[in-house]
Amino acid sequence: MADSGKESKETSVKETGKEKDTSASTTKRKRGAAAKKEKEREKDRPTPSAPPMQDIKLPDKYRLLPVPKADAANAQPDDIVQLSRTAKAAQITLQDDMLTASGCKGYRMVRATHGVASGSWYFEVKVNTPQNGEDGHTRLGWCTEMGELQAPVGYDQNSYSYRDRIANAATDTPGCRFHDSTGVEYGGSYGPGDVIGCWLKMGPGTASVRSRQRINIKGVEYIVEEERERTPSVGSHIAFFKNGEPQGTAFEDVWAEVYYPAASLFKAAAVTFNFGPTFAFPPGCDARPVCELASLAAAAAATAAPAAAATTAPEPAAGPVDATAEPMEG
């Protein structure tokens, strides 16, 4: 009986040792596989001594604009002008019609999907009643691709706007125009129920549609904008209308850039865009409805496609077609 107990104990010890050996072997194999995978990944990673993945020549002075990630949820048709799902501040809410926007807290911006490089263009914006009976303010106008979304239209040199009224003033006081954070008394005040017409006429020639570099920094794609001296579009102007009544020229000789219809909303402000072709108050000027930008862009893309397939030259930066041939705080 004693020998039997001894044998049983020795067998148990041997089996336990065998289990330990098996477990250690499995762990060793897993570590080896993980090390192999890491070694394979290291081959694709750039090292200080390795050449750069792409030759990027940055200008002496520049700024970076994050590129919104495009995915199926944010996809929008090219054949219709809408408010952009991606070129808007996160605090801005868009309705299903993709023409109505509402704000939250401080001034934030949203712009349209299509921009203009030349010609004469017009769109309307109806100012809606603020949500839940709260206060709200708006700035309406035009902005470039580099317009700051986390700020009001007219905040910097990349946008021009018509504000509903002068800050801290009664609603029957004059309105205000803004550019580069400078406000000047302009036109009449406006509010819920009013329809504001926005007219942009570029000077002769086309805007300076620049080729922009794109770089990837830690998984985020950025547009590189060179800080350079801007060129005005001589003869250009921006004017606004209130319920069909012209408010006069707000800006002249604006920068020669590509401009998008834009609005910034403060607190509970809400607006609805109308890109045409039927307007509540036709402007009575030589302007085309912004909705036509979609068909022009589609035609330009169709024309460019065969040429792009037949050449290996670098793809030009996307931009609006030349249409000159046809007519923070509240």
Automatic annotation (TrEMBL):
It holds the Pfam family SPRY. The keyword Mitochondrion does not apply. One of its GO terms (cellular component) is Set1C/COMPASS complex. The keyword Nucleus applies. Its main location: nucleus. Gene3D superfamilies: 2.60.120.920. GO terms for molecular function: transcription cis-regulatory region binding. InterPro entries: ASH2, B30.2/SPRY, B30.2/SPRY_sf, ConA-like_dom_sf, SPRY_dom. Keywords: Nucleus. Residues 1-59, 309-330 are annotated as: Disordered. PROSITE patterns: B302_SPRY. Residues 60-280 form the B30.2/SPRY domain. It is found in: Nucleus. Residues 1-22, 35-46 have a biased composition (Basic and acidic residues). Residues 309-318 have a biased composition (Low complexity). This is B30.2/SPRY domain-containing protein.
